[in-house]
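pinned: reference chain
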Amino acid sequence: MLRGEDIEGSDMATGWAGEGAVHEQIDATIQDAIARARAGLPQGTGRSRCEDCDAPIPPARRKAVPGVRLCVGCQESRDREQAGAGRGARHRLR
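pinned: its structure tokens
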């Protein structure tokens, strides 16, 4: 059986992964997630009227949010719905 001081000085097998490989894998996973999220963002000129309620979308919002499709009120409503849908069954059982 190895004692603590034996472990520190030993050349323990690390499998196939080289030093820093775990961090590289985490970084790659994060970069992939960021790329997928950015790809899902609306792009382009956007709409001048909300696709849900047909209210006008102010020019400042269209400039601030490229590809905007919803007015602020409808966007907030969708965000609340999505936040609620993201809760698991465990949360609903309480």
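why pinned: The mean pLDDT is 80. The chain has one domain: 20-92.
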